[in-house]
Structure formats: C-alpha cells, structure tokens
Amino acid sequence: MFANYLKLAWRNIWKSKGTFAINVIGLAVAVCVALLLSVTAYFQFSFNNFHKELGSLYQIYHEENEVNGPNAKSNLPVPLQDEMKREFPEVLMSTRYIGGGASYRYGTTTGSMGIRFVDPDFLDMFTFPIISGSKRPLDQPGNIVFSDKAALKWLGSADVVGKQVSIKFGDKWDNFTIAAVVQAAPANSDLDFGALMRFEHLPAYEQHKSIWDHYNTEMFVKLSDKATIAGFEKHSQSIVNKYYQDNVARIKRDGGKPNADGYLKKFSLIPVRDMHFISISASGGDVKKALPYMLIVIAAFVLFIACINFINLSVARAFGRAKEVGMRKMMGAVRFQLVLQLWGEALMICLVALIVGGIITYLVIPSYSAWLHTSVNMAMIFRPEMLLGIIAAFLVMTIVAGVYPALVMTRIDTVQALKGSVKPGRKQPVRNSLIVVQFAFSSLLICCTLVALQQISYLRSKPLGYNKQQVISLPLAGGDIHRGQLINLLRDRLSGEPGILSFSAADNNLGLGLDRSSMTSSVTFDYKEREINTNLLTVDYDYTQTIGIQLVAGRDFDRRLASDSTAIVINEEMAKRLGGNNVLNQFIKFDDEGDQHQVIGIMKNYHFQSLAKKIDAITLRLDPTRVDYAYGYIKVSPNDLPASLGRVEKVWSQIQPGVEFKGSFLDENVDRMYNEEKRTSQLLVAGAIVTIIISCMGLFAMAILSIAQRTKEIGIRKVLGSSISAIVVLLYRDFLKLVVIAIFIAVPLAWYGMGAWLNSFAYNVGLQWWVFAVAGLCAVIVALVTVSVQSIRAALANPVKSLRSE
C-alpha cells in the first residue's frame, strides 16, 4: 500500500512540474535561510556555555542609585578581591581581569603582545584546558601562561613550557618563566587572552591596590551551591558600610533614592551564562539579546511563508484533482487513507526541499560567515540541539504544508467531484488570509530594514565633535623603545614628512582600532559637598589640536608652563557637573591623589564613547612619566589620505622594525564600534529580500491559477466591450486589496518594534512617517509587478479561444 502511495505521489508530482519546481525552490531557499539564521542564533546563545562550572560563575558589578536613576558598571576597585576572599565564605574562588599590552623578547624574536592580568584562580574557575605545564601555573608570581595560538604566533612554537620570555612594562624588562600552555579561548567565549600574568604585575597596581574609589578592573567569582544573588547583595553591604560611607552619604545628599531593597549602593552579580547579553558587563554585553530571538523569528516566518505558498498552490490544485479524489472515495478509500496519501506527497516535496536547502547551506555558509564576521560553520548544524530543532521544524513544516490541503481535498463531495462541478469559491478566505500574512511580514521587514539603514547611516555620518577623517590612531605597544622615547621619535620623524600636520598621544583609543582594545577609567570625588564622577583620559601635549576638539573657554596644555603637569582640561558636561563656566581656573582634588588640579580649559562636548550612550563627563590630564600613553594620534592633510597612512607606516617600520603596524583612521575605528548594528541591518536586508522573493513566487503562481480560473469571465467581459485596462485593473484589484491590508497590519508592528530598538541609542534618527509610506509603496509595487505579466497576458488574449469550449 505504501509503495503504491509513493508511486502515485511521484506521478502526481511529475504531472505538475511547474508547481513542483516553485514549491521546491521556495521551500529550499527558506530552509537555507532558516538554517543560516538559526545557526547564527545558536552561536550567540552558546557564548560561555563551555565552562564546566558555569552555574556557579558570576561577574561582580556595582550600582549606585543616583538622583537620575541607577548607574551600574562592571569596573571595580582593585582591593575588592582580597576583601571578599577574607569576608565572604560563599566566595569559593575569585579573580580580577583586566587587559593590557607590553613588549616581549623571546630569543631573537621581539614584538608586542596582549596580556590579561588575572589571579591564580582564573584557570580553575574557567574551562581553558591546560595542554602542557603546571596545573596551577599562576601560583608563582614569576610565571606566565600562553594560549597555544598565541605561542605559535608570537613565539613560533607551542612547545615552550619551562622557557624564559622577557616582558617590558614601561622602560623596565623582566624575565618570566612560561609555566603552561593552555587551549585558546573558543570563538564563543567573551573572555579571551593571548597571555596570562599575575594581577600584581599590572602597571600602577601598587598605586591602586588600596584605593577603593578608583574603578578599573573586572572581577569574577565562583560561589558555593547555597549562595544566591540576593544573599550576596545583602552581604556586600558590609563592604559598602566599611569603605563607602562617605560615598553613600553623598549619593543621599545629592537626591539619590534607595532601591526596592533599600540600597543606595550595592555590589551585585551577573551570571556568566548571561554576560554576553548584559550591557553592564565590559567583557560581554556587545550583543543585544533581542538579536538572536529576532533571527529565530525571521527564520520561522521565512519557513512559514514558504509553507503558505505550498498550501495555496496545493489548495488551488485540489479542485483540479477533484475527480481523482471522488473516484477513490467511490472505490472505498476512507478519509484517513486519502489524507495519508496526500500528506505523503507533501512529505516528499518537503524532503527534497530539505536536501536541496542543506546543499545550498553547505555551499554558502563560508561566504555567509565571512560576510557577517562570525564564526558559524556547518559543523554546528550537526550538533544534537540543532539536529533536534531541524527535525522538529521539518515535521511541523510538513504538517502545516501538507495536512490542511489534504483535509480540504478530502472534504469534496463525491457526487459533485465525479460530475466535475467542483469549483473554487471566489472569496477563499483561507488563501487570502495567508497571502495577507505573507505580505504583512514582508512589509514589516521592509519597514525595519529602512529604519535600520537610516540609523546606521546616521551613526556613521553624525558629527562626533572631533576630526575622524584626517586622524590616524596608532597602538604603541611593542618593541624595546621606552614609550616616552618612542613618542618623541615618532613626533620628530613624522614632522618632516609631507602631509603630516601634528602628533599627540593618549592612554585610550577613540572607537575600536585594529588591536581591538578598549578600556575606560573613571574616578569619583567630592567637590563642594557634591559627588562628581568623571572619565579620566591621560593625554600628551597637542591632543585637542590633533584630534580637532574645540575649546570653548580657557586654553590647552602648554609645554612652557611647568604648572601644567598637574593641570586638567574638562568637557562641557564635566563643567556643568562642577557648576558651569565659572569653574575655569578652579582647583579640584581627586580622592585618591594628593595633588590639586587646576582647570585650565573647557572643551566642547565630543562623543568619546558609542552613540548608544549620552555624552559623559571627561577630564584630560598629562602623564609626567610619559609611560601611560598607549596610542599615538597623527593628524594628516586631507589630500591623498592613503599616501599619508603609508608614510606613517614607513616611519614606524624604521623606528620599530619587526613590530606590526596597526594604524587606522578614526572613521574606520568608529565604524567598528557598530558591528552589531551593521550585522542587524545586513540580516534585515537579506531577510527582507528573501521573504519578498518567496512571497512573489507564491503570488505569481497564485496569479496564474486565479487567472486561469477566470479565463471565460475575462473572455465574456471583452466580448461585452471591456477595455484591456479595465480588465487588468479588475485582476489587480483582488490582490492589491490583500496587500494594502497587509501593510496596515505591518506598519504598527514595525513602528512599535523599531521605536524600541532606536530607544536603545541615546542618539537616533527617530521614526519618520515617510519611511513607512515608502515601505508600503514598495510592497504594492512588488505585488503589482508580480501579477502584471499574467494579468496583461490574460487581458490581451483572444476571447474566442476562451469561449470556444462553452
């Protein structure tokens, strides 16, 4: 019986090759898109899941309930680690975590390397398997650990355990023993490293090891099984009461209100399993959790739209098979047998589509991964969780696409079927509803795509308050030269090069450079009985001139004035917090320092952070030791920018032979900050295009079948004097009405969803009515173009041929 069903199914499929091709192509493309989007979502959800102790690992953050609302950050004071290990029995292990760069020398090889400064528990807490070497390699202060990839890249071999490497911090070289080589962090890890060293080797550690008001490191803990986040927060009040009484008093004085638990300041926890999606976390938080969910929704809708095509085409063809169904009923076939046979046809088509879609996915996934700069690959699709999801989706797809048409066909009256008098109704509410759903989702994606593209364009083009087109940022890590000497050499050599206008340096980058490094440093202090928080940036002379930041009051740092070594330049937001422009020439004192700092200049506000954040207070100060500068900034002439970059690279290679050049223009750095938003817009564009194509394929096929059913009606209308244009409008009208309904459904949903997305940016383009009007017009045009060919052909046809069979 089943063999007979398969044979009949194949014959029926072969009879309608055109419909079969449309179904298979539509479903195969939908399967491919769904697989690509699903594996991308799976990759995002898999971040940090490989750690064996994941359920007990947390990142600590601190939160202050200020007058403007809660202010939460994951930057913590250095001494918090030792205090918690002493006073918190629920903390089984803990580690601080901060990045930095240094020069290294190994045999005859020299260069620059990235280092993560951590505590000895780091490798016991997190699952980065040790390939060779000691089980607790960081117990000894003089040890260093390399990942296998970093060892190959920097040292030329992963067989380096027990050997010595020289590391330079500032102008001093120290020797370290390579105690272990560990497996490099996988692509789905928020914590990455090339080399690990004890936290005590962090430059400025001695300066900050007992200061509680300087927040510059992240911290992770492993808690006991009985510990809870609420319990940890309550226990952390002992630290707040011990070290932050003045801080809490200032928050209360300035109008801060306690949270629901009565805390003005607290230390709390982020589960490491959620860190990837939590914006508070400096290590994670670069992806909004809505993104993978959005990908899953798009994947589901793309599959659903392809199934709608299948359903509509199957139902439309059902009336052409009425005699076959009636004959089978007369011969004794029960309804279950008919449903099983007709569903079997759908199963065969879906299986072919799944195979073809899988082949397409295999062919395009490398290009897709490179396009989105992600690490998805075909192997992920064969993981148990993904395979179960694919099987479940396949079964749902075959049921949705096959069972309803089968039920429709088996409901046909046997007598009418055998007489050949079964015809589709004109209204067909199910078919029309499905077409509305198709174009509603297509219109929704068009709206979202236009808004996302607008926002990305806005982020790239918005004036940031500094010159991003003509300024090169250059990471200074690497080589044997003292940082201050390197800066002087670069300034001297570049000053004689054509097109080089000025040079300066700072301890942090603007945007995200080729070294992928970014950090923030902030300080909280009391000023005139008010608590003030500001970002700190250590700069060299000529910084504001080189970057192109305008001064609105006062002056810049001056080499000729020795007193400027302790002077500061602040932005307008910082001046506002201090009391306005009258703060010029006033003195302030940071709580962790003994020096008084005179405000000598006020800068115009500029966006030193992402446009997702409002402009914060920032304070510029000099570094008398000239060792903290991590980046050089070179302003070049706007004429022939690539040539200027080449000149800078040439000078660098002369000064630092063998050290990689990682200079890039600031506009490139700014673009890198918005990779997530760019990926979102690219996925929306791709999803919109695929959805529209699949919808158009279905609409085209439905237009053919619908017009074929109205051939005689069109012939009669032409004989009675209807014009070609009137007939075309008549045929357009039914489909156009459905598309307009779809647009009215899609626009409110897009307005709400994209409004929420835009609100995640402190600066955004806002929602504009014309975007949704354009999206609706696009949907209408696409629908009209899709049905126009068949409509015009039907209107031009000779009515004699269509009426001859009457």
Return residue spans where pLDDT drops below 50 for at least 5 consecutive residues: none
Read across the widest sheet, the strand sequence of neighbours is: 4-5-10-7-9-8
What is the straight-line distance between the termini?
40 Å
Strand content: 15-25%
Q: What would the principal axes of the Cα set say about the shape?
A: elongated
Tell me the structural class.
Answer: alpha+beta
Mean pLDDT: 81
The radius of gyration is 33 Å
Total individual domains: 3
Number of helices: 25
Largest sheet report: 6 strands, mixed, barrel
Q: Compute the number of strand runs.
A: 23
Helix fraction bin = 40-55%
Structure characterization notes:
The structure is a single chain. The protein is of the alpha+beta class. It has 3 domains: 2-44 and 289-459 and 676-803, no CATH class; 54-277, no CATH class; 471-673, no CATH class. It contains 25 helices and 23 strands. The strands form 2 sheets. Strands 4-5-10-7-9-8 form a 6-stranded mixed beta barrel. It has a 4-stranded antiparallel beta sheet with strand order 14-22-13-23. A hairpin with a 2-residue loop joins β4 and β5. α2 (17-45) packs antiparallel against α9, α9 runs parallel beside α13 and α9 (290-318) runs parallel beside α21. The model has no long low-confidence stretch (mean pLDDT 81).
